[in-house]
Each structure stands twice: as structure tokens, then as C-alpha cells.
Amino acid sequence: MKNKNHLNILGIETSCDDTAIGIVRSDKKILSNVVINQNSNLSKYGGIVPEIAARDHLYNIDYAIKESLEKAKLKIENIDLVTATGGPGLIGGVIVGTVFAKSLAMSLDKPYVAVNHLEGHALTARLSENVSYPYLLLLVSGGHTQIIAVLGYGNYKRISSTLDDAAGETFDKAAKILGIGFPGGPMIEKMALNGSPNSYKLPRPLYKSKNPNFSFSGLKTAFNQIVSKTDLNEEIICNLSASIQKSISDCLVDRTKSAIKLFQTMIDEDSKVKIVVAGGVASNKFIRNELQKLCIENDASFFAPPIELCTDNGAMIAWAGYEKYNCEGSTKLEFKPRPRWPLDPTAHYTNPIQKTVGKGGVKA
Ligand code: KG4
Ligand code: ZN
Prior knowledge:
Layout: E1 8-13, E2 19-25, E3 30-36, H1 39-43, H2 50-72, E4 81-87, H3 91-108, E5 112-116, H4 117-128, E6 135-140, E7 145-152, E8 155-161, H5 167-178, H6 184-192, H7 217-228, H8 234-264, E9 274-278, H9 285-297, E10 301-303, H10 307-310, H11 314-328
Zinc ion (ZN) binds near residues 280 and 312.
């Protein structure tokens, strides 16, 4: 392989509904980051239909690669490392990305790296904000809500996770209940701008509890009950959106606050705590502001990647793949896509509801 300072890394992300291809240089320059989303297709069904999503990836991936190379002003032969999300995620989409990446790596005679999607989110701030290890990560996406101590590459200790639904899922469900489209997070955020966060009294599950786990299913139910008894109009939708956004935000901030204390016991006492937020929900400006305030109050530094790097994208996969390659080398072509792939395989022992391991392994 040529001079390691100038590797061009291709990142393929197909684990959910976005077909995303990014090209990142090993000096952290993002050369291109193309995302083709299926929102218009999926909004018809109010959510993601795995089979349709997989077929769309197959349809979009060639075009996304071409556009990504064009934007980066590179030819396919200039790619030095091929990386792709190998899980966790919707298996049809993960298979499309994995088979594509392996074939490309083989035909170019370049190394292939299978990347854990969660690791992609977890390490994004190292690409965009140059954050050094260790840091406390709040990972908030459509399928995951976790707080993780990121102590070094591959050294992840889960501090807490959700006992039921993820924060992103809650935003999506709330938007579906209000009939304002998919994905729900950006729509709720937009409507909330014209609403009052205190107009509806909603629960904040596990608020102030000692254990920093999350729970959102009670909030979803309470929201559904209020909406089912209400005649909706634009003003009411704005108020309901602002209220649920505040409720989710309060839970995230409160749980992160209690995790800071635990994290402090894991790192050098004198060092200032760094807090990183990642995943699709991290693009919410209200939540970013609230987390920023928490960090100021607790004398911690706060890092949030730019919005386009919070939601699923190929650049984050390329970067995590590069870090993995540096530590572990390439992945064998025998790698099997993994619908489940926790960042920390032993974390379920500490989670009250995840003590059992199913046929498919530990849930992420
Ligand atoms: O990380 P991501 O793109 O995909 C997964 O790995 O799940 O996250 C998608 C989730 C969706 O639930 C979406 O509604 C949520 O992130 N999301 C937001 C915002 N943008 C995306 N939630 C709140 N506010 C936003 N602005
Ligand atoms: Zn994601």
C-alpha cells in the first residue's frame, strides 16, 4: 500500500434506508459524501419496508459510487481501501453493501474492511472534530440509544442503553401519530420551532433514576393517548411537537448527566470530560443546545459532528474502517453480514432486560 498519509478510503453505508457512499482521505479530508435517501418512497408506508429498501440499494449503489468518485475527482483505481457497513442493520441492505464492497476490493486488488455501523457513528467526531480518546458518547439513532465510554479504538464500555424504544424511533412514531411524515425527527424539529414545549404534560421515563438507562415506550403511549383525544390543527401539532421534543431532550440530558459521574471513575481524575453526541437524533439543534448547556454546567467539553455527518453517511464508515484497518488489518472476504453486532459484546450482562442471548446473538 502507498504512503499511509494519503490513502483514499471508500465507505459504503446501506444498513437502513439511505444508500450512502463517502470518500475520505486518511488526513481526515472528506472528498465526497453522497447520500441517496428513500424518504419519498418510504413515506408512502409510514416507515421502512426492509425488502423495498434492499432493492433500492441495489438500484442506487452504482450511481452513488459514480457520483462520489466524480465529486472527489478520483477514478476508481485511486481507491486504496474499500470499507462497508457489515452490520448491525436490515440484513438485505447490509448484504447489498457487503457483496458490492468485497467484489470491488477483489477486482481492484485492494483491502476490504467490514465496519460496525455503530462504530461509524461512535468515531465520527474523531473525523470531523479531531476528538482524542477517551470520551463519553451519547449515541442516539433510529435503532439505538446508548451511552458508551469510548476509551480507545475497539475499547468500548457501555454505560447504559434503552430498555425499550430508541429516541429516533420515538420521534418517528410521534410524527406518524401526528401524520406529518417520515422520517419523523426532522419534521418534529421543524414543527416544534413554532410551538411551546410546555403546552402538554408528557412523562419523562426514568428521569432522575440512579441507573442511566433510557426508556421511551411510556412516553410514546402517553403521546398517542393525548393525540387520540385531540382535534389536530397546525398550532396544536406545533405545540405537541415541541412538547415531545422537550420530553425526549430532558431524558437524554438527565441520563447523560448521571453517566458523567460514572465516566469520571473510568478515566484519569484530572482530565476534563469530553462528551460527544452522534447518530441521526444528534442533528436536532434543540437537543444539541441542551447538551451544550449540560456540558457548560459540568465543566465538560462538548463535541457534535456537523449535521450531515450525524445521520447515516458513507464518510463515517470510511473513517471507522480506516481506524479499524490501522489496528486490526483487513477483513477476510469470508466475513458474513451481521444483523446484530453490539459494540461491546458483554454489555448485555449489565442490562436488566438483555441478559438472554438469542439465536442471532446479542442484540446491539
Ligand atoms: O443514525 P440514523 O441516520 O440512522 C440509524 O442508524 O438509525 O438515525 C435516523 C434517526 C431517525 O429516527 C430520525 O427520525 C432521527 O434519526 N433524526 C432526527 C433528526 N434527524 C434525524 N431526530 C430528531 N431531530 C432531527 N433533526
Ligand atoms: Zn445510523
